[in-house]
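Crash report, auto-generated. Payload:
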Amino acid sequence: NAGVTQTPKFQVLKTGQSMTLQCAQDMNHEYMSWYRQDPGMGLRLIHYSVGAGITDQGEVPNGYNVSRSTTEDFPLRLLSAAPSQTSVYFCASRRRQGARQPQHFGDGTRLSIL
Amino acid sequence: KQEVTQIPAALSVPEGENLVLNCSFTDSAIYNLQWFRQDPGKGLTSLLLIQSSQREQTSGRLNASLDKSSGRSTLYIAASQPGDSATYLCAVSSQTGANNLFFGTGTRLTVIP
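Recovered output after restart:
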């Protein structure tokens, strides 16, 4: 089982560039989410989706877009990269929305914005 | 807004010791609490999930307790091993936003052979 797969693992961008972070899960999970992890801070929720065609904002959504056209995939788009978006990004999934199941995390994408 | 605090930030123990990691949260209206392990350069691995109605969960050498009324949880690791060295993260899911996990900043554990 692949679980939650994130690509790329590392990326360097210049300020103003756009890019898409990919996330795919093969567990038929309904719920998927994106977090960012910054030094000295806990992981913070960017966007989440409770099923195909449904997305919503988390705690820190500004500068990011998401879409959920299939159950398996949940890409995160940086519209115009800024140095403040330098972070480690984690995608997570859970079987259903609601809090009774554990979340499964990918290995992360380490993003640097110059 | 839910605030999650983990103390200590770092901990070093000799192999074989039993140890306790602490987690506190400000809003007791939670759905559940989850303990994760994070290895350097890796993602998070779920260790234990405690529902709000439960007091503890056990998995092997790990035991997690939850005191919702006081806003505290502990992760007990018995007979620590060098392979336990990692960062341990605590996260709570609140009743008002069950889809959002609020994370602490973690405790970095080093088990010395």
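Post-recovery validation: Chain B has a mean pLDDT of 93.
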